[in-house]
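Please describe our next protein:
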Amino acid sequence: MMATQKTKKKSWLQHGLKTSAALVASALLLLTLPAHADDKDVPSLKGKRIGITVAGTDHYWDLKAYQGQVDEVKRLGGIPIALDGGRKEAQQISQIQTLIAQKPDAIIETLGTASVLEPWLKKIRAAGIPLFTVDTASPSSINVTTSDNFYIGEQLALKLVNDLRGEGNILVFNGFYGVPVVAMRYDQLKAVLKWYPKIKIIEPELRDVIPNTVQDAYAQISQLLNKYPKGSVQAIWAAWDVPQIGATQAVDAAGRSEIKTYAVDGSPDVVSLVKDPKSSAAAVVAQQPYLIGKTAVQNAARYLAGDTSLPPATYVPALVVTKENAAEAQKTLGQTDAK
């Protein structure tokens, strides 16, 4: 009887891994479908002033999304009022107050801590200004343009599970759960791991920081590699890819080739790490931040032209980048080091 139960359990796990592998394979196909903002029939923004507020532009994703918004407002004939919060919440809030006072035709807000921002996002709407967001889920927003972060979190977790063959210990960075997209990715990781009880998150979870993210991640992982001997850690997960850089550098410097790293965003330097066969970077889910920013502006333009059919969320496809497809992904993503 016990032998039968063990056989059934083994069969269940093998089936789960095969099913997850099939899902990942499907995701790779689905997420590589070309996606471009539809430039046709986008209404003009001539004479319109569009406020743009972003939490910061020090990270590749943030900067490209910001540039996408500014460029598209100009392309459509509008006037961008673009403000960078410099990763200081008080500064971004002050800038939002400034934008409200200027009464632009619409405001687009990007990233930040939801609980801190929401009172000010409500004030934008209370002032009668249409609000659109990028990567900020908010009940005050007419539309949020983003990647499908539920799907991203699931697919990254499934990739990790399959690489580990359903068993191992992982280190997890969880420093910015207050940012909605980060929370979505983390929650999906936990949801997937629920079904793979032989994969354990090492406690306490790590906290990533801003600024000096790479250096801090390198220091934290280097210290933990001294604490946990070879064979006791199999993977490192982060909700965005700047901590992955530091973690990957630390793993490679220590010669711990048994450890793989995983994250989200797809900055060019991280995609290059994934491409490198000698690097411990196993996968990154690459988003299209410039297209996300551009699409947010187009949604605002349609709304200002009288289109009331916008959905609450617009999802721009992402791409799961692995060792196997990294070279092709660089070309698909239009990254400058593509060969």
User: Anything to note?
Assistant: DSSP finds eleven helices and twelve strands in the chain.
